[in-house]
């Protein structure tokens, strides 16, 4: 049986020298782009860090011992070869940001523990092999941004689309069954806090004139063909072979 690449061995000394202080005073262990093929057990001795960056390596598996990183609020695993995530990831109750973009994750191997990350605000599942999204992800009530782009999705469950705090959903380049729904999914989610409906007879003459003028302006704008522009998702970028070197641009401020 052919052996895979051996990969760089990470010692405790290397790991300690890779700790950086973040802008808000936290401690980030940055082991990105180091050719790592297996999860370094020595970093379990540094489990009190706030952020862990193992992106752009050759990892195929994250062990259940990840649960020892109890303080972890930011975890970046993008651009590896992960085929599954451990169930123990659900124990990271402080996790605010999780990026597993550009891996080999399938719907079957998404752990139910993901639903337990009650403090998660940003979740990036883009560039994987997902054929569907579990409806149970609707339990992540604090989620504000989710990346689902470049998968094999044909639909997105309402429990996810209707998350109360969701502001950005990037689901571009999925084979949605209905092309109109695809455009709906890729647009930024816009929410109306309050809507008042009144009849014309209930308005004074000045208010009625103002509303009529605004309605006429809107009709004129609708008759003008707008130039189509792609929505911007600064925190849900698509990494590729020439992904940005500046890891700060991948971090959530």
From TrEMBL:
Protein name as it appears in the record: LRC18 protein
Looking at the keywords, is Iron present? no
CC terms in the record's Gene Ontology section: cytoplasm
Gene field: Lrrc18
Q: What keywords is this UniProt entry annotated with?
A: Leucine-rich repeat, Repeat
Record-annotated Disease resistance R13L4/SHOC-2-like LRR domain positions: 67-205
- Give yes or no: UniProt keyword Coiled coil: no
- The regions listed as transmembrane in this protein's record are none
Alphabetized SMART domains for the sequence:
LRR_TYP
């Amino acid at each position: 049986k052919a052996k895979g690449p051996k990969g760089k061995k990470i010692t405790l000394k290397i790991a300690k020298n890779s700790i950086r202080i973040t802008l808000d005073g936290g401690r980030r262990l940055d082991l990105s782009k180091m050719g790592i093929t297996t999860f370094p057990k020595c970093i379990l001795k540094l489990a009190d860090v706030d952020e862990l960056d193992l992106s752009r390596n050759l990892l195929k598996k994250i062990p259940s011992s990840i649960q020892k990183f109890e303080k972890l609020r930011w975890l970046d695993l993008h651009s590896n070869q992960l085929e599954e995530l451990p169930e123990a990831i659900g124990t990271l109750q402080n996790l605010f940001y999780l990026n597993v973009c550009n891996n080999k994750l399938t719907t079957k191997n998404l752990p139910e523990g993901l639903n337990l990350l009650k403090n998660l605000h940003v979740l990036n599942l883009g560039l994987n092999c997902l054929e569907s999204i579990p409806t149970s992800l609707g339990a992540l009530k604090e989620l504000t941004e989710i990346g689902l782009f470049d998968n094999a999705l044909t639909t997105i469950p309402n429990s996810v689309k209707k998350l109360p705090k969701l502001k950005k959903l990037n689901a571009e380049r999925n084979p949605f069954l209905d092309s109109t729904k695809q455009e709906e999914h890729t647009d930024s989610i816009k929410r109306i806090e309050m809507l008042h409906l009144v009849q014309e007879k209930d308005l004074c003459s000045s208010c009625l004139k103002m509303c009529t003028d605004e309605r006429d302006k809107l009709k004129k704008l609708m008759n003008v063909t707008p130039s189509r522009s792609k929505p911007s998702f600064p925190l849900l970028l698509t990494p590729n072979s020439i992904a940005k070197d500046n890891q700060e641009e991948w971090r959530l401020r």
